[in-house]
Structures are given as C-alpha cells and as structure tokens.
Amino acid sequence: MIISIVFIINRIVNLGVDFSHFFTLRYAQFFIAAVLIYSSGIYILANCWRVILTVIARKELNRQSVNSIFIKANIFKYLPGNIMQFVGRNLLGSELNIPQRAIALSSLFEIAAIGMVSFILALLTGWRALFELIGANTKLPLIITLTVIIIIAAATTVIILRERVRVYLNLAAGKAILKCAVGYTLFFFLLFLAFSAFLWLELPEFHGLLKIASAVIISWLAGFVVIGAPGGIGVREAVLLFVLGEEYGEGVILYTSILQRFSMMLGDVVIYLIVVLWQKRVKRPDF
Length: 287
Known about the structure:
Mean pLDDT: 78
Low-confidence stretches: 1-5
Helix content: over 70%
Strand content: under 5%
Distance between the termini: 32 Å
Order of helices and strands: HHHHHHHHHHH
Number of helices: 11
Structural class: mainly alpha
Number of domains: 1
C-alpha cells in the first residue's frame, strides 16, 4: 500500500497536477452523479452478498437488515485494510444471530465470484490490456492475486461439495449464481460509466472504450484483493496509470483516477449515512 501511495504522490509532483479546474460547476455536477452511481453500485454488491448468504444460511433473511450489514462493514475497509470489511460483517452479523460460519463462507464465495466475473469481463473487453499487465514488471503481484482467487474458489467449492451438496446443487443455488453474475456485471458497468464520464471531461474525444472498461475492471479487482490497501487506495490508481497512461496521457489518467477515487470514497459515506438514517427513522433494533 505504502509503495502504491508513494507512486501516486510521485506522479502528482512530477506532472505538476493542478486541481483548480476541478472546482467548477461542470465538474461538480459530474462528481455528484458519480457519487450517486457508486452508491448505487455498493447497494448492488450488498444485494449480491445477501443472495449468497441466504443460500448458505439456508433460511430467509431480512433484505434491509443484511444489506445494512454489508454497507456498514464496507466502511471498515478504510481502517487497516480491505480485510477489515469482512471482519466487520461477522461482528455486525452476530447481533442478528446469523451463523458466523455462514457469513465467513459467503464472503469467501463473494471474493471468488467477483474474481471470476471480473476476470471474464476483463478478457472479453480488453484481453490485450490484461496480458500486457500480466507481462509487465508488475506481473508477480498480479499472478499472486489471481492465484489467491483460484485457491479461494477451489477451497470454497471443496467445502461446499463436501458438506452442503444438497443445498447448493439445486435450482435456488443456480438462480443465486445467475443473480450475482448479473449484479457484479452491472456494478462494473457503473464503475466504467463513472470513469468514462470523468475521462470525457478531461479528453472529450477519447476512444478505446473496451480497453478502458478492461482497465477499470482490472484496477478495481486489484484494489479489492490487496488486503493491505485501505479501500484499494493507490493500487487502483497505479494500475489505471500503467494500462491507460501511455495512450491517453499520464496527466489525464491521473486527473480521472483522482476524481474517481474521491467519488468512490464519498459514495461509500453517502450510502452508509442513508442506511444509518433509515434505521433511525424506522427504529429497527438491528444493531
């Protein structure tokens, strides 16, 4: 994480980034729209996790209560690192009497599912960009990341096939897989939409939408699985600079990635506050 942040700071200093043009009405409008888009994306991820958890727990769970666990725990990723959001789910879920094993398994399943969906989408939208990244100097961290995803997916599958075959090999499980695949695809589309909008502000006549989509997906996945990076800070920006910097200009991509970063952080806060205010309004004693 520290290396990634130093990398971004070094780029900002070397390129002489001027943030003054961010503070205009036009940028503010796009920024607010991006915040709302990302907040919606987090809600989609929360619903996907709820679907997985419902199948694993083998019982119906309150939609809003479980979504609240995900959204509240999502803020924890800005503490020591991404891994804390998964710890937070178990802490918050225990107050709803949801089995800790079910929550832990659902998180493992989620990581594996997101990893597989994002990798497939990255291949479909820009396989060249993906293999350029794999073949670069950063290939070791990426290979390790992909290996971890595969191991987690395999380990989760073994556990499921050994202990809960009847639960997962049924119609409900098939529907859950389909729902999550669609949900994660929609989430990545929203990320791509917000990033492309920011890029358009900096470079109105840009091209290569598929490569941009691939870069956005790869960068988000890298920030998600690097457990030591709070919210993927520095990691995602570094990947975007590497994949897109040469073609679109490092300054443009740096501007765009910074706008995206702040919109994502504020989006996390907005959806969190919405959940907190909703719970106070309906006076639910969930937490």
